[in-house]
Amino acid sequence: MKIDWAPLREIVANHQRFVLTTHVRPDADAIGSEVAMAGLLEQLGKEVRIVNASPVPPRLAFLDPNHRCLQLGPQVTDAVASDTDVHMILDTSAWSQLADVGRVFKKTQAKKVVIDHHVFAEDLGALNLKDTDAEATGTLVFQFARAMNLEITPEIGTAMFAAIATDTGWFRFPSTNRETMTTIAALIDAGIRPDVVYRQLYEQFTMARIKLVGRVLSRMMLDADGRLAWTYVTLVDYRETGAEPPDTEDLVNEGLTVGGVEAAFILIEQSNGNIKASLRSRSHLDVSCIAGKYGGGGHKQAAGAILPGPLAEAQAKILPAMKALFA
After folding, report:
1. Per CATH, which fold does 207-326 belong to?
2. Structure confidence by residue, pLDDT tens digits, 36-67
3. What is the Cα–Cα distance from 271 to 203, expressed in whole angstroms?
4. How many degrees, rounded to 5, is the angle at CA 53 between CA 48 and CA 59?
5. Which pLDDT tens digit goes with each residue over 172-226?
């Protein structure tokens, strides 16, 4: 479903100040889309701030070399975050995913714009620019750049490339198609170095993360006759390895590397006692319906939700639901 960019073009033409935000625990698609969109809007002479509920994960700091992504609370007040003409929300369509930023946005009279590729959607009172067939929100930002005839600079292009590359699992997920590679070719033509981006994303891990990964993978279990793999992370794991919550990023995908496995999930204990469930699948299996049952969302083959703790109770809900996919 192709997006008609005319409504956004009109909003951009008629407004000067923009505040961009994305979901909590931002990934490369979230940060990359924000940074790229900020650069594009500034080419049009707009004033842009990026205000998020969560800090930039250390491994993604290279996408924001000028430290533009500020955190509500520690770095930005509610008043500053709400002082704008337009609030632009990227890579989510859920109030719960905005956390405290959503609280601020609900109180303002500023126009709201959503640019997203996820199926799940709530009424955010916004202009919704969604394409659920797009492999990444970064793809949509690229399309906006083309629609507006804007320059893709090295910083903007690197952010777009990282967004698309990570959300396609470095082009190995089924969402990758001919148009994906056409977009990537255009970014390479603009001077983007895939080898440099890959090194920044996947070859800069700390020893603490390596120890955490070893521990978590060592307790991986198989179910549903070897078609389902799952594991978990506790707060004790962080303390004993020295790792941090962002170090669990993409860890769920390791379950799909086991021969015969068609779906995988990981349960991650949060500091507030809740449990983050990340769900993955291949082929025809739809994990988004499970995430949606518990207030989460995502895509057919990649979704997630936050459940109440403790870990054992969350496991008692997610494990049977995932096994039921094979019934």
Report:
1. Diaminopimelate Epimerase; Chain A, domain 1 (3.10.310)
2. 999 999 999 999 999 999 999 988 999 999 99
3. 27
4. 90
5. 888 899 999 999 999 999 999 999 999 999 999 999 999 999 999 999 999 999 9
Sign of CA dihedral 310, 313, 318, 319: positive
The pTM (predicted TM-score) of the whole model is 0.86
DSSP annotation string for 48-67: EEEEESSPPPGGGGGG-TT-
Query: Is the predicted pLDDT of residue 1 greater than 80, yes or no?
Result: no
Burial string for 57-70 (b: 16+ CB within 10 Å, else e) reads: bebbebbbeeebbb
Reduce the DSSP state of residue 152 to 3 states and report it: coil
CB 4 within 8 A of CB 135: no
DSSP letters for 64-105: -TT--EEEBTTTB-HHHHH-SSEEEEES---SGGGHHHHHHH
**Count of residues making up the chain:** 327
Q: Are 287 and 325 in contact (CB under 8 A)?
A: yes
Torsion from C-alpha of 71, 75, 79, 83, nearest 10 degrees: -70
| Token representation of residue 262 | 């068609």
Rounded Cα distance, 300 and 287, in Å: 6
Name the superfamily (CATH) of residues 6-201.
inorganic pyrophosphatase (n-terminal core) (3.90.1640.10)
Round to whole Å and give the CA distance between 299 and 29: 14
Which two tokens mark 208? 């603490």
Respond yes or no on whether the N-terminal peptide bond of residue 58 is cis (omega within 30° of 0).
no
Q: How far is CA 31 from CA 23, 63, 272, 276, in A?
A: 9, 7, 24, 20
Place of tokens 């590359």: 165
Q: How far apart are CA 192 and CA 158, in angstroms?
A: 6
Residue ranges per structural domain of the chain: 6-201, 207-326
Q: Could you tell me the strand order of the sheet in which 302-307 lies?
A: 221-223, 228-233, 263-269, 275-281, 302-307, 297-298
